[in-house]
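Researcher: I'm preparing a figure for a lab meeting and need a structural model of a single chain. I don't have an experimental structure, so a prediction will have to do for now. The sequence is pasted below. Please return the structure as tokens so I can convert it later.
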Amino acid sequence: MTDSTPTVFCLPDDKHVPVEEGYNLLQALLIAGINVAHACGGSARCSTCRLHILTGAENCEPRTAAEQEMAERLKFDDSIRLACQTRIKGEVAARRLILDMEDEENASQLEEGNMGEAIGREATATVLFADVKSFTSLSDVLPPYDVIHLLNRYFRRAGAAIQRNGGHVDCYIGDGILAVFRWEEHEDATLRAVKAGLDLLEVATGISGYVESWYGRGFEIRVGIHSGPVVAGRLGDATMQRDTIIGDTVNTASRIENACKEAGVPFLISAPCMEMVRDSVEAGRTFALELRGKEGTHDLHEITGLKGDS
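Model: Understood. Here is the structure written out token by token.
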């Protein structure tokens, strides 16, 4: 080994490992006694040798074709590399992401069906929460079949409205909908979310006539929207995994939807969202409200329509 030999500092092992010419990171780390997972034997088929490059990314050689295919399939960002495919030409610091057998079983792509965003990653998104007003009391007086039939009728129309505006339904929570509009997909994601929220109100109005004719009750929803950083990834056990988002932005959107009840309006968005869509929307009142689990008061803006709509 010479003074110019590339070195990787591996966490959580806290160990500096020289990488001799001709060796990739997996080979070098194994020689150094670091037990890096490699379920496929180092052929870029399992992804269990993944590393998070902390510093020195410029000292890593470009991805091989096999690594690039895996990275695109699992939506790895540039900081996630496969040790079995990565060669370095300088100082690098990296963290092992698969630390034990349970991690390896959860992350390996050798098991059929284990696909998706297996690595948590930061993203920026606009999050929409919609909930049916007083649905619990409505469901208490309806037969079980009618409850499911009514919700599915609503969800089918609501999901189409969200997709039409460039969003994705993340999940259904009882009678609630969590939808995400990713900034990486649409630079006007927040405006798209607001348009979707208005479309959902129209969907509810259409459903209300149906509900009134059959059950003698109306059908209304509340919508809350907030934008900010989220953590995106694939969650769940092997039998029920799905791509989802989590984080404070999601929680805040949910709290804003809940605040519609106190404000007595169907549609509220946060102040950061209002700054992004102010020139395109018709706004009603502004409310300074407390949000459960949040400190202080928060300015929330009522949305009543789009500018230019007749």
